[in-house]
Amino acid sequence: MTRIDDCFARLAASKRKALVAYLCVGDPTEDESADLALACVRAGADILELGVPFSDPTADGPVIARASQRALAKGGGLGATLRVARKIRAQTDAPIVLFGYYNPLFVRGEGAVVDAAAEAGADALLVVDLPIEESLPLRGAAYAKGISLVPLLAPTSSPARIASLQAAAARFPGGFVYYVSVAGVTGNAEAPLSVASTAAGKLKATLKLPTIVGFGVDTGDKAKLAAKDCDGIAVGTAIVKRIEDGASAEVRLASVTALVAELRAALDAG
Amino acid sequence: MSATPKGDQGGTREDATKTKPGYFGPFGGRFVAETLIPALDELTHALETIVHTTGFQTEWRDLLAKYVGRPTPLSDAKRLAHSIDPAGAFLKHLYLKREDLCHTGAHKINNALGQALLAKKMGKRRIIAETGAGQHGVATATACALFDLPCEVYMGAEDVKRQAPNVGRMKLLGATVIPVMSGSRTLKDAMNEALRDWVTHVGTTHYCIGSAAGPYPYPELVATLQAVIGDEARAQVLAAQGALPDGAVACVGGGSNAIGLFGAFLKDDGVALYGVEAAGHGVHTDKHAATLTAGRIGVLHGSKSYVLCDDGGQILEAHSISAGLDYPGVGPQHSYLKDTGRATYVSATDDEALAAASLVARTEGIIPALETAHAFAKIGDIARELSAARGRAVSLVLASSGRGDKDLATYLERLEVFRDAH
Known about the structure:
The structure holds two protein chains of two kinds.
Chain A: H1 3-13, E1 18-24, H2 30-42, E2 47-51, H3 62-73, H4 78-89, E3 96-100, H5 102-108, H6 110-120, E4 124-127, H7 132-144, E5 148-149, E6 152-153, H8 159-171, E7 177-180, H9 193-207, E8 211-214, H10 220-227, E9 232-235, H11 237-245, H12 249-269
Parallel strand pairs in A: 1-2, 1-9, 2-3, 3-4, 4-5, 6-7, 7-8, 8-9
Helix pairs in contact in A: 2-4, 2-12, 4-6, 5-6, 6-7, 7-8, 9-10, 10-12, 11-12
Chain B: H1 13-17, E1 23-24, E2 27-31, H2 37-51, H3 54-68, E3 74-76, H4 78-84, E4 91-97, H5 108-121, E5 126-131, H6 135-147, E6 151-156, H7 157-162, H8 164-172, E7 176-180, H9 187-200, E8 205-208, H10 218-241, E9 247-251, H11 256-263, E10 272-280, H12 291-294, E11 296-300, E12 302-307, H13 332-340, E13 343-349, H14 350-364, H15 370-377, H16 379-390, E14 394-399, H17 408-413, H18 415-421
Parallel strand pairs in B: 4-14, 5-6, 5-8, 6-7, 9-10, 9-14, 10-13
Antiparallel strand pairs in B: 1-2, 2-12, 3-4, 11-12
Helix pairs in contact in B: 3-5, 4-14, 5-6, 5-10, 6-8, 10-11, 14-15, 14-18
């Protein structure tokens, strides 16, 4: 059983929802990213999404796009993210998802990326701009190393696309599904989270995979709403914003910890 | 209406370059967020079921004739040819396909009108576009004014500065110009922002991409709408000299005017195809936009193609004096034409382009766009090479893709370069 399967099984057994925390690695530094990620776990995050900064993050809103630019300016990228993953893995068993765009993976080579990810202790890859049709080679290579490829589905995904994902999921089982709550970029304040949660819950039944909702979840109330019919939620922009706004490492750590704890409490109260 | 006589088509482009659907050999595809896939499916369906219908073609070609001014003429650039090759040793004829005479001053209007018409028929209520030099932005704003569609154009803040006349034109045409402050503040970043807008308003909005780049079906849609350039040029050159040209030459940023010109000649093995990229300060410096000449295969803006990126896969900032060529990617069909050897890609520096613009202005009375000036800059080299291979003086057709009014400020600032060149 992989760390991700195990994580969702434990959550299901205790009737709790998954809290997935994203941060952009290298913003403000590699070391602090590792500290912040571990703080998220201590505050109640179940799964970590380590954002691989990319020069052209077309699916991200301004907050994560700025974080990406800051991280790149300090030499961030896939290599730095793998280093941070390894460091985190030495201190926690929480599943780690490497979250980013395709070109850094393509340039390094899919096989090499999968090897490096496995070696660093990562459990999954989520590639925003690699839709199901283009993803099968990477999915297969990753599966062979015990790494899953987390697919994104959106309100615009047609039944035919869900069916093709279903076929891929049957061939390479494991992982979870990330349901994008709204047609838009990350950090959308207007996301219809209740509707998204219901849709994600239905997908869970179809795909036989745990399903979480992300995009637009930034408070305890929204987390509760987004998680009501599915297996959990992802929070990214709200964490990254607190890192951006925090004046010192201590302030950033306290602020991110407080947010994650608030979301955890709200999910557990649900 | 088409200037190409029936029975004299250059062959179906699709046969010549397409492999699996959405791909040109290993290049192309769709590398976008899941949310956009249905919109690309919808557009692919529209390309198949609307664009190729007689109804659409009649309406669009009527606009090209009565609004754009097509067919554009083919000019025999005798003085320029003579100045490049006074002895007539290697360059027999240089024909200019005069896209600079299109309404709005560049070939971009062919595509913009086609896409606006298509958007209207698809029931889209809003158009967005990205622009570099502003020519595609102006063309889209023009088409939207004509079709009564709201239009928002994303333009890098750097380009807003260096292409001020086009910003003014877009505003006058009723479009909203949104300066993009992120990244290098040029075309790449404008495209990022347009993609973010599109993903957010995907149900109601058509994204009018101006280049033969982006996720499938855009490269094919744009190539289809720009094919009129090559179709006309092929027939016009045949009429002018009773034979096909030896070579066809065009500048390449994303590559829409080039693919428009090349399309008609793909199956004519005797016609060599040349794309000219922007070498900026030189392809051996870090300030250029010569993606095919000095890039590597990668994924940018939705398709697999040559890109400028570092070993970590981060896209690099391109540089060119020409905003329209200042892009670290290129259309996937060009990557395929390069790798199969069907087309040859060379590059011209900023200074070579400036010198060429000056020469063209003085010998032909045509002030070319800075983009087009790059193609002019390599005519001598290309003609010499081709002539050596064929053992005789050659005839070339060049896509004179746009006029240089928008670049006047740059030209005037750089007058000393012109003087040095003469």
